[in-house]
Structure formats: structure tokens, C-alpha cells
Write a structure and sequence with these properties.
Blueprint (H helix, E strand, L loop, with lengths): L24 E7 L3 H11 L3 E6 L3 H10 L4 E2 L3 H5 L4 E7 L2 H13 L3 E5 L6 H14 L3 E4 L1 H4 L2 H11 L6 E9 L14 H4 L7 H12 L4 E9 L12 E8 L4 E7 L13 E6 L2 E6 L12 E6 L2 E6 L7 H12 L7 H17 L1 E3 L8
Helix pairs in contact: 1-10, 4-5, 9-11
Length: 364
Amino acid sequence: MSARDGMNYAPVGKPAPVVAAGEFVFAACSLDHGHINGQCNGLVEAGGLLKWVYDPDPKKVGEFLAQYPGVRGARSLEEILEDSEVRLVAAAAIPNLRGPLGCEVLRAGKDYFTDKTPFTTRAQLEEARRVVRETGRKYAVYYSERLHSECAIHAGTLIEAGAIGRVVQVLGLGPHRLNAPSRPPWFFERERYGGILCDIGSHQCEQFLHFTGTNSAQVVSSATGNFANPEYPELEDFGECSLMAAHGASGYFRVDWLTPDGLRSWGDGRTIILGTDGYIELRKYLDVTTEHGGNQLILVDAHGEQRIPCSGNVGYPFFGQLILDCLNRTENAMTQEHAFAAADLCLEAQEKAVRRAPLPSAES
């Protein structure tokens, strides 16, 4: 896993099985985004047995099988869906295909675990809501910027314990490196990737709802632009959004594809959470200009200032909780309402976004 490559960022944690060997069987398909490796890593570390993989591209399947020896290559998606042992299907399809694929999986009697963003249109979201009600299956979403970040997980624990009082505001920064030559064609097609606020903005919307403890919020304003990549006219390389929760907490986030080549990580992701009794800052992937590494949590409260290194000290409990939720039909990892509320909010941000004009050139 390269720290400079966000598309293939797949954290590896310590094994923490919550089930006996073979008790929870799952499969992977639609290997269009490298996040599928993070999804599978988390489930395997929690005790899941990865039995099948399917993708129409044999090269992708070959690379996947090299990383996960012992997994079987399926001849079709139907072969996976017809296997009664498979309880869940993990997928990282092209974004505009994630919703329809999820509904197909749910109708086959399996739970579904998709990479973010889970939908690119409101119609897809409403169809998924209907199919979830009809089938009783789970439509889980890999919002990895929180679920696969130890400092973000620890921040949630501190907030729940009252460490900073009531959350007043959440500021999120989600910069990413473009690496344009390595990207597939769909990445630059607006209809297929959904727009920057719908895509990587979905992480920020989910974190805002989680840290403020609500599923009820609205978009106050949002904007997008393409400031540095005119050769890709459908790409949005910048997006920003202001949010307001029903209980009064506010949020602002910025996402972009403008990470400079000199940064040793694919993005200097940060979150600042202001409470009535203190604040928390998360330095997720690195602590720029220092050797502290990523997963740094800064806590400031009435007792003083603390730097809390979280790497290797917190783990990734979501995956074990998701497995147990699938087995027990509970909702401890993430409620369905929350997963869909975050998706709804990022779709609203994209729909309301004002398109910013490119910046004037130096010559003008």
C-alpha cells in the first residue's frame, strides 16, 4: 500500500476475529476501485472467510487472487449470488453502478457492503430504501475516512464520553492527489463518478452526522469548480459545502484533487471538532513536517493539551460489528438510517452546488 496512492489505500489492522473460522462467509465483486481491498482486509481481520471474487476483467481478478490466496474466482456474479453460504457481498463498482448492484444483491438474499459513494442519483437512493424495506437486508457503506481511521474512531469514543461537551461545529478537510494517468476513464466522466461532493464529499457528510450525533441535517450552501485540470472538463477538482444540523451544530468541509506532489501522503486529511468544553483535531494520514506519522489526535480541554497517537492502539471495530450485525440482524456498526442519511446529504450538496468559474490566468 503506497502512502502516495489514495485510490489503493487499504489499511491493514491486527486480527480481531468476532466469529469462529468459517462462520461468516462473504464474497467480493466489481473491483473497479482499490477500496475493495480495504473492505476485504477489515472483514478478514474480523474473522470473515472470503470465498469468492468476481469481475469481468481477468487482470483485476488475477491481481486480487494474488493478494488473497485461497479465494475462488467465480464465473459470474450469479454464481456468487446462488451460493447459500455467502452472507454478504462486498463491492467497489463504478459509482453510478453501485446502487443497482446493491439492489440486485439484496434481492438475492445477501447483505451488501459497498464502497462510498453508495449512489450518484436520488432515484438510486430511493430505490435502495425501497428494496431494503422489502427484503430486510443490509445496505452497508464503507465510509473509510472514519471507519478505517483509528484517530477518527477514537474521536467518536471521546465525544460520546463527553470529553469536549456538546459538539458545536465540525470542520473537515479532504484533499486527495489526482494521479490522473493512473485513473480509469470513468473517473473523469461526471455521470459515472457523480461529482466531487457526491463522491469524496460523502466521507465528510458521514463524519459530520456521526460527530454531531444526528441524522437530520441540511445543506446551507455548496460549490464546485475545476481550477487546475481543463483537459478533463467533466472533472471537479474542488468542492466545498456548509451544513447545518437540525439541533443547531454547523459544519464546513472542503474536498479537492489538488494535493501537491511534494506531500509524502496522498492527502493531508484533517478534521477539527469544536465542543462547548474543548476541541479535537485529527491529523489522519500524516502530521505534516513532523515524523509523528498519521492517526494523531489532538485534544484540548480544561485540563490542558494532549497529543494521542492512535496507530495500532484503537483498531477498526466497525468490521467485526458489521459481521455480528449481519448474523444477529442488529445495527451496532452503523444504522441503515445513518448510512442513507449521509448519502442523502452528499447528494443534496451536489445538487445545490454552484459551479465556480476557473481562476484567471497570470497572463490576464
